[in-house]
């Protein structure tokens, strides 16, 4: 990101987080988003707004483009050679796909937690310190590590073994470590791609409780196949489905409905949404 654009982003973020602001600020404004892999259009016509300090859930059947759309927010799809994004994703009014924008700068502001816990084969301490070191953070690393682990509700469990390998943690602990690693670089947004799918119910409940605690400091987007989870943790929900091309047998994801979670699960506007949340298909 150019210095001018970085400065503009800082200014916008400052303006939208003032106490006087009554309605939650719009962090992302997605307009007519299409995602292609080569000539194949994987997702089409996505329009939605993501608000500050809310949890936004993406739900829908497998193959409907939930994760593809999520990866657009931190430009992870850039790493796929054939991927192309049309339309706009505005981050505090700044187009994330403007040619002048540096994707690395985007990923500093927008953290990612993946489906399967992926700690580095390093110590617990070095997992958390990796990002701040890489970004040249001049703060006290010990303090940064402790604060990140405290925010991820992991400090009390690991404070006496920080120099031991992160690979020795349980699955749920590893996922909270990955959340701590993401927030150690002080992003504004955390993306979570099915963060509980590999966890048992107890670890899942801890991650869900953690998300509720973190949303006071971060804006969170989560992809989940678990509708009960979306209903429990999210403020707003986007339901995606697939359209099948009968000639080519290809499937394109489409956003059917986006609204408050209460409305999506109790009084959806679209019959397709109602059929999905009531278990008639999907």
Automatic annotation (TrEMBL):
Claim: Iron is one of the keywords in the record: no
One cellular-component annotation, GO: membrane
Alphabetized SUPFAM superfamilies for the sequence: P-loop containing nucleoside triphosphate hydrolases
Record flagged with keyword Cytoplasm: no
Pfam families according to UniProt: ABC_tran
Keywords: ATP-binding, Nucleotide-binding, Transport
Cross-referenced InterPro entries: AAA+_ATPase (IPR003593), ABC_transporter-like_ATP-bd (IPR003439), ABC_transporter-like_CS (IPR017871), P-loop_NTPase (IPR027417), PstB-like (IPR005670)
GO BP term, pick one: phosphate ion transmembrane transport
One annotated GO molecular function: ATP binding
ABC transporter domain location: 28-267
Protein name: Unannotated protein
């Amino acid at each position: 990101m150019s210095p001018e654009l970085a400065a503009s982003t800082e200014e916008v973020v400052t303006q939208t987080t003032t106490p006087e602001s009554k309605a939650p600020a719009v962090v992302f404004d997605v307009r007519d988003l299409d995602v292609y892999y080569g000539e194949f259009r994987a997702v089409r016509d996505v329009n939605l707004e993501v608000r500050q300090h809310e949890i936004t859930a993406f739900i829908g059947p497998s193959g409907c483009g939930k994760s593809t759309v999520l990866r657009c927010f931190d430009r992870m799809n850039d790493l796929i050679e054939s991927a192309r994004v049309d339309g706009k994703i505005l981050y505090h009014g700044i187009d994330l796909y403007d040619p002048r924008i540096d994707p690395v700068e985007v990923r500093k502001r927008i953290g990612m937690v993946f489906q399967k816990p992926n700690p580095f084969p390093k110590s617990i301490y070095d997992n958390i310190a990796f990002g701040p070191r890489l970004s040249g953070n001049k703060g006290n690393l010990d303090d940064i590590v402790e604060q990140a682990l405290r925010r991820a509700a992991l400090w009390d469990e690991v404070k006496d073994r920080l120099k031991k390998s992160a690979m020795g943690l349980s699955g749920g602990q590893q996922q909270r470590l990955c959340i701590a690693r993401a927030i150690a670089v002080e992003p504004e947004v955390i993306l979570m791609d099915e963060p509980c799918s590999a966890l048992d119910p107890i670890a899942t409940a801890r991650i869900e409780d953690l998300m509720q605690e973190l949303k006071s400091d971060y804006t969170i987007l989560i992809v989940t196949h678990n509708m009960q989870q979306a209903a429990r943790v999210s403020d707003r929900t986007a339901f995606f489905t697939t359209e099948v091309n009968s000639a080519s047998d290809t499937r394109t994801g489409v956003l059917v409905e986006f609204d408050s979670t209460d409305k999506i699960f109790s009084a959806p506007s679209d019959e397709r949404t109602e059929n999905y949340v009531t278990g008639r298909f999907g």
